[in-house]
Write a structure and sequence with these properties.
Layout (H helix, E strand, L loop, with lengths): L7 H26 L10 H55 L7 H24 L1 E2 L2 E2 L7 E4 L5 E9 L7 E9 L3 E7 L13 E8 L3 E7 L4 H10 L1 H4 L1 E6 L2 E9 L4 E8 L7 E4 L19 H5 L1 E4 L4 E4 L2 E2 L1 E3 L2 E5 L3 E7 L1 H4 L4 E10 L1 E4 L9 E4 L12 E2 L5 E2 L17 H52 L3 H27 L10
Antiparallel strand pairs: 1-2, 3-19, 4-18, 5-14, 5-19, 6-10, 6-12, 7-8, 7-11, 9-10, 11-13, 14-15, 16-17, 17-18, 20-21, 22-23
Helix pairs in contact: 1-9, 2-3, 2-8
Length: 507
C-alpha cells in the first residue's frame, strides 16, 4: 500500500529513535556523573540500599574523627602528666638529699625547701593549665561525681563508668572474705621470759614485707619490753607487736597477701610455753591452739611464716580482685577501686559504697550514638593536695601538699620518712594514671580507629558497587546507543522520503 496521510514507517522510526536517544542520554549522564543511580527511577531498590550505606559511611567517618579527637585529648593530658612525673622525680631527690641531716646545714635544707615549694606550685599550675580547646583536663574536670559516700569507704578511684544520659549508678559491694594481716602468736607461758640460765639469750629473727631484724632477750625480760623493742623497728620490718595474756601477737603493718610475718628461732635458750602459733583464718585476733610449734621444734628453728589475706568482695554482681583492703573491678561499664576502712574490710557485710551521678570524659567511638559505643574515662585531679595519699603507722594521713613550708612533712624540721612515702605514693598514682591513659590510647582508641577504617573501606566498596558507574560497561552501551541513534536517524530520513514516491502514480 502507498499512503500519504499516515506514514507508519516514519512513526515507527521516530519511536525507535526516541528510545535510542533516551538510552544514549542515560549513558551520557552516567558517564558524566560517575553514578549509575542518579534518581530513584534508575534503580528504586538500589537507591534505598545506597542511601543507607551512605548514611553508614557518614557515621563511620564521624566515629573515626571522634576517635582521633579523643587521641589528641589524651595526648595533651599525657604531656602534662609526664612533666608532673618529672617534677616528682626531682622532688624525690630533694627529699632524699634532705634526709642527710648531719651533712647538710640548715641553710641548705631551707634552700631545698624553697625548691620543693616551687615544685608543688608548678604541679598545681600544670594541673590547672593543661587544657584542650579551653577545657581543663587535669583539675578534676573529668573526674566522676558521686553522692552518698559510705563511712565504710576510706578511699576510692573511679577509672571508668558508663551512664545513660541523666542516669545514675549505685556501686554496691558485698564483702565475702575479710582482709587480714599476716600474724603469729609467740606463747611464752608467763609475763616474762624464763630461760634455762641467766647467761642465755632467747634469740630469733623477725621478718616482714619491709625487712628483717634479729632480736636477743635475756631471761626475766618482760613481754612488754619485748613488744616495745619489736615496735621500735616496725618501720624496718613491717611487723608490729602487742602483748596478749602470756604471749605476744605479731602482725604485719599492712593487710593482704603481700604482707607477712616470719619468725625463725635462732636460740630458744630453754624458753617454755606453747611456742609459735598461727592466727585463725576467720579471726586474726585468735590463735589456733592446734597449730602450736615449740620454740625448740624443727619447724620453729627452720622458720614459721604466715601471710595476710586479701579482701574478698563482689561489686555490682562482679567478683572483685582483692589487694589488701582494696577491692576492684574492671568491666566495660564500671571500673572502680574501693579501699575500705579497717572495720569494714575485716567484717563480711553488704552496703552501698556511693552513687555515681555523672562526670567523666565521655567519647563516642562508634558509628551509632548509644551506650555500647561510648567510653567514659575518669581523669582525677592531680593538684598537690590530691596526690600522694599516705597513712603512717600512727594513722596520720598526709598528701603531697604536706611537704610545703610550715607543713608536717617539710624537709627543714618535718617528718622526712613520711615525706618520702608520700612522694612514692604520688609517683605511683601519676604512673598508674599515665599507664591507664596509655592503655586507653593503644587498646581502645588505636583498635577502634583500625576497625572503623576497615568498616569504612568495606562499606564504601559496597556502596560503590551499587551506585557507581561501571565505565567499561557504560562506554560499551554509549557506543551501541550512538550507532543505533545514527541508524534510526537514517531510517527516519528514508521513511519520511518514501511518500514522495506516490507522486509518480499521478503522472
Amino acid at each position: 500500500m502507498s499512503r500519504i496521510n499516515t506514514n507508519v514507517q516514519s512513526l515507527l522510526a521516530q519511536r525507535v529513535l526516541g528510545q535510542n536517544n533516551k538510552t544514549l542520554n542515560t549513558s551520557l549522564e552516567r558517564l558524566s556523573t560517575g553514578l549509575r543511580i542518579n534518581r530513584g527511577a534508575d534503580d528504586p531498590a538500589g537507591l534505598i540500599a545506597s542511601e543507607k550505606l551512605r548514611s553508614e559511611i557518614a557515621s563511620i567517618s564521624a566515629a573515626i574523627g571522634n576517635a582521633e579527637r579523643a587521641d589528641q585529648v589524651v595526648n595533651i593530658a599525657e604531656g602534662g602528666l609526664q612533666e608532673i612525673n618529672n617534677l616528682l622525680i626531682e622532688l624525690q631527690s630533694l627529699v632524699g638529699q634532705s634526709a642527710n641531716d648531719a651533712g647538710l646545714s640548715t641553710e641548705e635544707r631551707k634552700a631545698n625547701q624553697l625548691q620543693i615549694d616551687s615544685i608543688l606550685q608548678t604541679i598545681d599550675r600544670i594541673s590547672a593549665a593543661t587544657t584542650f580547646e579551653g577545657t581543663q583536663l587535669l583539675n578534676g574536670n573529668f573526674d566522676f561525681t558521686v553522692s552518698g559516700t559510705s563511712a565504710n569507704i576510706a578511699d576510692y578511684t573511679i577509672n571508668a563508668a558508663k551512664l545513660e544520659t541523666g542516669d545514675t549508678r549505685a556501686v554496691n559491694i558485698v564483702v565475702t572474705q575479710s582482709a587480714q594481716h599476716g600474724g603469729l602468736f609467740l606463747s611464752a607461758g608467763a609475763a616474762s621470759l624464763d630461760l634455762a640460765d641467766a647467761t642465755s639469750s632467747f634469740t630469733f629473727e623477725l621478718a616482714g614485707a619491709v625487712g628483717s631484724r634479729e632480736f636477743s632477750f635475756a631471761s626475766a625480760t618482760s613481754l612488754t619490753n619485748v613488744a616495745e623493742s619489736i615496735n621500735t623497728f616496725k618501720s624496718i620490718t613491717g611487723v608490729s607487736a602487742a602483748v596478749s595474756g602470756t604471749g605476744i601477737v605479731l602482725k604485719s603493718t599492712g593487710f593482704g597477701s603481700s604482707n607477712f610475718v616470719s619468725v625463725k628461732i635462732l636460740n630458744d635458750a630453754g624458753q617454755g610455753g606453747d611456742g609459735i602459733l598461727t592466727l585463725s583464718s576467720t579471726d586474726e585476733n585468735t590463735a589456733t591452739a592446734a597449730s602450736g610449734q615449740l620454740f625448740s621444734s624443727n619447724a620453729a628453728t627452720g622458720g614459721i611464716r604466715d601471710e595476710g589475706q586479701d579482701i574478698g568482695a563482689i561489686i555490682n554482681g562482679i567478683a572483685a580482685t582483692g589487694d589488701g583492703k582494696t577491692a576492684s573491678v574492671s568491666t566495660d561499664f564500671l571500673d572502680v577501686a574501693l579501699e575500705l576502712t579497717n572495720t569494714a574490710a575485716t567484717t563480711p557485710s553488704a552496703f552501698t559504697a556511693f552513687t555515681i551521678t555523672g562526670g567523666g570524659a565521655k567519647f563516642n567511638l562508634g558509628p551509632q550514638v548509644n551506650i555500647t559505643n561510648q567510653v567514659s574515662l575518669g581523669i582525677q585531679n592531680v593538684a598537690a593536695r590530691h596526690l600522694g595519699r599516705y597513712t603512717d603507722l600512727s594513722s596520720n594521713t598526709y598528701q603531697l601538699d604536706d611537704l610545703a613550708n610550715g607543713q608536717a612533712l617539710n624537709v627543714v624540721n618535718g617528718n622526712i620518712e613520711s615525706a618520702q612515702q608520700v612522694v612514692n605514693s604520688a609517683i605511683d598514682e601519676i604512673s598508674a594514671l599515665r599507664g591507664r591513659l596509655g592503655a586507653f590510647q593503644k587498646n581502645i582508641i588505636g583498635s577502634t580507629i583500625n576497625s572503623l577504617g576497615i568498616a569504612l573501606e568495606n562499606t564504601s566498596a559496597a556502596q560503590s558497587s551499587i551506585r557507581d558507574t561501571d565505565f567499561a560497561s557504560e562506554t560499551a552501551n554509549l557506543t551501541r546507543s550512538q550507532i543505533l541513534v545514527n541508524a534510526a536517524t537514517n531510517v527516519l530520513a528514508l521513511a519520511n522520503s518514501q511518500p514522495q514516491a506516490v507522486l509518480g502514480l499521478l503522472g
